[in-house]
Design a protein that fits this description.
The protein has eleven helices and 17 strands. By secondary structure, the chain is α/β, with parallel strands linked by helices. A hairpin with a 2-residue loop joins strand 6 and strand 7. Helix 4 crosses helix 5 and helix 7 runs parallel beside helix 8. The protein binds 5-beta-D-ribofuranosylnicotinamide adenine dinucleotide and zinc ion (2 copies).
Length: 374
């Protein structure tokens, strides 16, 4: 029996309050309106950005259904939808591509003006499709993938290869693409260069993969959890260091290791002190530093402009600089053609109902990516 046009009752993980566990609840998911798509979720990863909302580091309205790194199958479409149809395998895009705004038309930029970051928690028309116990529930980044069904705008979903394994390519929805693109597309890492990557989680390891693919000669991994080092080396780090092992500030240690500073540095943690260290560890006149981690929204950094005046480049990007609707299908095709691996990023697969266990593994530094399956 078709569910198209009807409200679907299903399970979702609702975050009612900051710093509390998720509750698995029965929610009602309204049918998609014009230019919207309802998706049956198959697999979703847990990214630190989801946890930033739980901790309050990303300020968002509550109650909310989080999740932004996933893959699923289109259940039904609203009026006027032309780019996907029921049965298509898709990846939701937390960074949309409307194709019409100034940013979408710019050849290099990708932070479409229809984005919902910082979160207001609705679809583009300003309304919501989830209800739980009679209460409307907020969306997260237009994706809300911690639910058996979700509704997204058509500009926030990409059709992918029908043969793609969804429990792996879900990582192309955030962690892999964000990291890999930050290296190959945003920093434009050059062959023979030296790179430093701060933070060796799922996104940081994907930065390392991108640096390696771009031909970097040296890739220095930086993390305070040395348990992350073997995996980092497996995916391409040539050496790994723990700032806690040194008396000197870590940027000085890296400058000494790299003839005055690395060519490219990446902050993939989301802290102000490591953003400063990453900036300073790249060479003062020919280095580039990329902010990938999401910092606490309410805080600012103080930097002496002389650090930039001498020729450093400091930049940042959402989703690795990729325009999602154009790039996600190509990244999936590249994965299918064995151009990169996703398996090293997947450390655990759990049923969706065990979402709190998955978050505990992330918080205690025991996982890279946990994939929740529906
Ligand atoms: P995850 O928590 O898995 O990795 C972070 C790593 O940093 C861990 O290995 C920690 O041990 C390490 N770490 C923590 N504190 C320090 C420190 N003081 N010094 C050195 N290392 C430290 O996170 P993730 O890989 O899922 O995400 C990383 C960041 O990327 C995070 O801030 C997330 O919100 C952000 C992000 C950005 C984007 C984007 O589009 N730019 C998309 N998704 C996630
Ligand atoms: Zn746009
Ligand atoms: Zn993410």
């Amino acid at each position: 029996m078709s569910t198209a046009g009807k409200v679907i009752k299903c399970k979702a993980a609702v975050l009612w309050e900051k710093n509390k566990p998720f509750s698995i609840e029965e929610v009602e998911v309204a049918p998609p309106k014009a230019h919207e798509v309802r998706i049956k979720m198959v697999a979703t990863g847990i990214c630190r950005s989801d946890d930033h909302v739980v901790s309050g580091s990303i300020v968002s309205p509550l109650p909310i259904i989080l999740g932004h790194e996933a893959a699923g199958i289109v259940e039904s479409i609203g009026e006027g939808v032309t780019t996907v149809k029921p049965g298509d395998k898709v990846i939701p895009l937390f960074n949309p591509q409307c194709g019409k705004c100034r940013v979408c038309k710019h050849p290099e930029s990708n932070f479409c003006l229809k984005n919902d970051f910082p979160p207001r928690g609705t679809l583009i028309d300003g309304t919501r499709r989830f209800t739980c116990k009679g209460k409307p529930i907020y969306h997260f980044l237009g994706t809300s993938t911690f639910s058996q069904y979700t509704v997204v705008d058509e500009i926030s979903v990409a059709k992918i290869d029908a043969a793609a394994p969804l429990e792996k390519v879900c990582l192309i929805g955030c962690g892999f693409s964000t990291g890999y693109g930050s290296a190959v597309k945003v920093a434009k890492v050059t062959p023979g260069s030296t790179c430093a990557v701060f933070g060796l989680g799922g996104v940081g390891l994907s930065v390392i993969m991108g640096c390696k693919a771009a031909g970097a000669a040296r890739i220095i991994g930086v993390d305070i959890n040395k348990d992350k080092f073997p995996k980092a080396k497996e995916v391409g780090a040539t050496e790994c260091i723990n700032p806690q092992d040194y008396k000197k500030p870590i940027h000085e240690v890296i400058q000494e290791m790299s003839d005055g500073g690395v060519d490219f540095s990446f902050e993939v943690i989301g802290r102000l002190d490591t953003m400063t260290a990453a900036l300073l560890c790249c060479h003062g006149s020919c280095g580039t530093s990329v902010v990938v981690g999401v910092p606490p929204g309410s805080e600012s950094l103080t930097v002496n402009p002389l650090e930039i005046l001498t020729g450093r480049t400091w930049k940042g990007a959402i989703f690795g600089g990729y325009k999602g609707k154009d790039s996600v299908p190509k990244l999936v095709a590249d994965f299918m053609a064995n151009k990169f691996q996703l398996d090293p990023l997947i450390t655990k697969v759990l049923p969706f109902e065990k979402i709190n266990e998955g978050f505990d593994l992330l918080r205690t530094g025991k996982s890279i990516r946990t994939i929740l399956t529906f």
